User: Which sequence fits this backbone?
């Protein structure tokens, strides 16, 4: 049970890292996520059914997400469309694209097909239970992604990303084109989201075109909860707290499902809880900021 | 020391709370996971509970709903696994898939899955898998279309379905094949949500002389829009859902009662708990005449200038005439 929360939290943490990149680093609220998440899932499923190796499918899923992000950024840059609308446009278009990828189906099962996870379970057979094999595998995957992201943010380009979210004007003065940065940033972000979707499909045993419902909100909730947990300006801590936030968010949702009935809560109320969680996190963060200003 | 005593007391107390009093009858605990709250699926959920209670009156249920979020289907499956439910029931395709994928050491039943083979739940509908079987809501597509054809010979049949619903996509494929076989031209259009249904029907209405609706939650949510457009164009609507047809201008509806399907699923669940092997139980289809409802709306027929053959009226168990519903 507890390992279930952790595995799910880790899978969605990859998506939350993508959301963190756009929302927090680039200051680019990106709703492409609700389309690029299922896109990763359907590319993975379609690829596995074609007999392509799981690792290649993951790369393809990442590439698909990257492309989706490029499109959102391009709409925003070239047509001067606000970010929210650009993301919604891409997300809307992706629904049709995803159905095409599944060759005009809405849902593709992965129940009796070799996935990366069945391979991992095969390796761990006789050594440990599949749940724990999944857990260790995802800890490694997420740590690898986190490590790569940390490295990326410490390169010259990564540092400019941080500056862009803070002050676009300053970046422009330095002779860097913000449009190019946004293209790369939103691309990588959605690549991560699609990667998360590809893992989620294997974990759940199916890919479905409706898999993206509510994803961006859960990503946001994870990012905000993480900011609750740790205070720091160091990038390695920033990414770590996103991961912890994602796990905590899943944990809270589980608690709601498990013990909610004590306070007469039904599973239908969970969406309300998600929204309230984000609002409370924001309110507390605001309150703290005001206090700090008053105290300074 | 005091702390240790307190902790021990707390542990004992919580253990005592977990242990229910031993009963003569086996305490059965069943998890039901449905994808979304929806009249048909809610009726199904109720049916499953009542079906189980025929054998185990004291059965306890954990009713979970994924609120339409597929990502939640896996969380629910994890929960059932952790709670070691005696049996897990998945209502609709994605929830059933998540359960089968997660729960390996307990039986899983699917229901309201139109195409269990296509959904990867069973390799063949002729028998279950190890620990997996269930009921399908496959409707008699061919018979439905032929029934409409008997009331009014159809040259071109229109079909609206939701591209995001696995069940609807499977049925659309069957309807297409049936029309080809019967020599009827088939015009299909898809929607992604219930708000698009009206427009979709408007675009195909001028080109068709009948509309067929299969099991499609999205389209049934907007049935009033379908029938409004169809009546304006004077074309009959044949639906697969008798319950929603009671309050809309549908010429004929032939399908089964979801509550009954739930009851059948619940009985199977009870059998499995009593030792029946899921792998020996084939996918159950609702084919028994007593399971199937046929609704005929004579008012709509009159408005469309159609005469429903007496033989069909005789087989119907729900007839709407002069605004009144009579059930046989």
Assistant:
């Amino acid at each position: 049970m507890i390992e279930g929360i952790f595995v799910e939290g880790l899978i969605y943490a990859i998506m939350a890292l993508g959301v963190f990149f756009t929302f927090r680093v680039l200051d680019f609220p990106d709703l492409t996520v609700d389309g690029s998440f299922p896109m990763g899932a359907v590319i993975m499923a379609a690829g596995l059914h074609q007999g392509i190796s799981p690792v290649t499918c993951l790369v393809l899923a990442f590439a698909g997400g990257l492309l989706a992000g490029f499109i959102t950024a391009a709409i925003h840059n070239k047509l001067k469309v606000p970010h929210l609308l650009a993301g919604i446009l891409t997300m809307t278009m992706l629904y049709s694209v995803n159905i095409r990828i599944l060759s005009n189906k809405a849902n593709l099962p992965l129940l009796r097909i070799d996935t990366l996870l069945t391979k991992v379970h095969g390796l761990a057979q006789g050594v440990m239970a599949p749940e724990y094999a999944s857990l260790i595998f995802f800890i490694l995957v997420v740590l690898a992604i986190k490590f790569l992201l940390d490295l990326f943010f410490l390169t010259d380009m990564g540092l400019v990303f941080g500056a862009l979210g803070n002050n676009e004007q300053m970046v422009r003065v330095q002779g860097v084109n913000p449009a190019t940065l946004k293209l790369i940033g939103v691309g990588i972000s959605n690549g991560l989201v699609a990667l998360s979707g590809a893992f989620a499909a294997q974990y759940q045993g199916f890919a479905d075109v409706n898999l993206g419902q509510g994803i961006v909100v859960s990503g946001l909730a994870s990012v905000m909860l993480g900011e609750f947990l740790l205070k720091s300006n160091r990038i390695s801590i920033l990414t770590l707290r996103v991961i912890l936030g994602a796990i905590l968010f899943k944990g809270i949702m589980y608690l709601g499902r498990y013990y909610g009935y004590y306070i007469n809560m039904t599973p239908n109320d969970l969406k309300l809880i998600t929204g309230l969680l984000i609002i409370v996190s924001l309110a507390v963060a605001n309150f703290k900021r005001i206090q700090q200003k008053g105290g300074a | 020391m005091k702390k240790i005593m307190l902790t021990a007391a707390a542990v004992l107390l919580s253990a005592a709370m977990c242990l229910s009093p031993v009963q003569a009858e086996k305490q059965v605990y069943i998890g039901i996971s449905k994808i979304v709250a929806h009249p048909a699926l809610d009726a199904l959920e109720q049916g499953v509970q009542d079906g189980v209670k025929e054998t185990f009156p004291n059965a306890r249920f954990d009713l979970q709903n994924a609120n339409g979020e597929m990502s939640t289907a896996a969380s629910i499956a994890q929960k059932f696994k952790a709670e070691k439910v005696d049996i897990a029931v998945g209502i609709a395709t994605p929830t059933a898939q998540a359960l089968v994928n997660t729960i390996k050491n307990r039986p899983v039943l699917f229901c309201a899955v139109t195409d269990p083979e296509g959904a990867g739940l069973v390799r063949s509908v002729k028998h279950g898998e190890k620990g997996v079987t269930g009921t399908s809501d496959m409707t008699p597509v061919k018979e439905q279309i032929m029934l409409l054809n008997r009331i009014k010979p159809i040259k071109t049949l229109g079909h609206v379905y939701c591209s995001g619903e696995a069940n609807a996509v499977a049925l659309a494929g069957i309807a297409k094949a049936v029309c080809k076989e019967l020599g009827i031209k088939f015009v299909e259009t898809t929607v992604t949500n219930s708000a698009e249904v009206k427009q979709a029907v408007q675009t195909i209405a001028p080109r068709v002389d009948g509309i067929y609706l299969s099991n499609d939650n999205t389209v049934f949510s907007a049935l009033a829009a379908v029938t409004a457009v169809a009546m304006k164009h004077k074309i009959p609507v044949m639906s697969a859902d008798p319950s929603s047809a009671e309050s809309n201008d549908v010429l004929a509806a032939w399908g089964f009662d979801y509550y009954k399907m739930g009851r059948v699923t619940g009985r199977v669940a009870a059998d499995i708990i009593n030792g029946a092997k899921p792998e020996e139980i084939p996918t159950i289809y609702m084919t028994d005449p007593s399971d199937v409802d046929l609704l005929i709306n004579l008012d709509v027929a009159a408005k469309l200038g159609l005469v429903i053959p007496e033989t069909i009226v005789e087989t119907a168990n729900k007839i709407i005439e002069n605004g009144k519903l009579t059930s046989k």
Summary: The CA atoms of residues 72 and 129 of chain B lie 25 Å apart. The first helix of chain B runs from residue 2 to 18. Residues 5-24 of chain B have pLDDT under 50 and may be disordered.
